[in-house]
Amino acid sequence: MTYPRLQIANLAIVGALLLGGACSGGDSPALDAAPAVDAPLALDAPLALDAPLALDAPLALDAPLALDGGSPSNTEGLDLARPAGPPTLYTGVDPARLATDVVPAVAEWVRNVPAEVLSGFGFASPADADAIQVGRPYGIFTLHKGPWLAFGGYWRAAVLVGGEYRSVVSVKLEGDKYVLATLGGADFAPTLAEREKLPAVSAALDIGRAGLLQLVGSGGISLLAYEVAVPEGATEPDIRVQSLSWYPSLIPGIDGSAAPPETTLAEIDKSLPAE
């Protein structure tokens, strides 16, 4: 069976995005309950968005770290005025330095947490600390009517152990150092693993031009966005948007390499309420 992706109109995708955009901190979408292949994607279940770690306190290494999820909405004190120019996913992040700064903090936490707690965060044992890797980061943005994008001051990245996607971190920049803000989101790690197999998404991550989006007024992330190569003479980046509730490899009879349906910021903007 082949999924009729080309038959999904942009407006159907946009409608599904808007209906599910108001994520407010529930359970992550069940990986064993794929969306119907003959209907628009449903976004009625947000990703794992539990209690955030207090960002003004040091990481406690003698207790479980708070599950990730709140950082995209934690924009207090940030300048979220509309930036000049067209929307872009570029944040100036240095992926190599981010990984160098954050890996030791994740590894130390894994070594110091009781083994029976680690499974809830995607880890098998304290020995995983010796093989920790942090993947390429996504900027966290809010999509506003316009359209325009507000960068929230955080990045998310997968945590890998021996190349296997296990968990997710949220990271912020303090001075000249990237700092671990929250750790968790084990349910979200398989989603990132699937999307990063897509050549276009992977290429955007390589140049720091991929992001995770929440719609203005919603409480959680529901979209993945990436920039494609800008044709010569173009005046603004070409940003493609996908729903994060699409799990093609988990649908029987569907080609797992198939890309999810995509739309654009302009199409979503048509249905966003005025601010």
**What is the percent of helical residues?**
10-25%
How large is the count of helical segments?
Answer: 6
Main beta-sheet annotation: 9 strands, mixed
Number of domain modules: 1
The overall pLDDT, averaged over residues, is 75
- Would you tell me the structural class of the helices and strands? alpha+beta
Uncertain stretches: 1-78
Number of strands: 9
Which descriptor suits the 3D outline? globular
Calculate the terminal CA-CA distance, rounded to whole Å.
43 Å
- Sequence of secondary-structure elements: HHHEEEEEHHEEEEH
Query: Radius of gyration from the CA trace?
Result: 18 Å
Strand content: 15-25%
How is this structure best described in words?
This protein has 275 residues and is α+β, with helices and mostly antiparallel strands. The protein has one domain (19-50, 66-269). 19% of the residues lie in helices and 23% in strands. The protein is built from 6 helices and 9 strands. The chain has helices at 10-20, 95-112, 115-118, 189-195, 199-206, 265-269, and strands at 132-134, 138-144, 148-161, 164-174, 177-184, 210-215, 223-228, 238-243, 262-264. Strands 1, 2, 3, 4, 5, 6, 7, 8 and 9 form a 9-stranded mixed β-sheet that branches. The longest helix is centred in the middle third of the chain and has 18 residues, at 95-112. The radius of gyration is 18 Å and the shape is globular. The model is unreliable at 1-78 (pLDDT under 50).
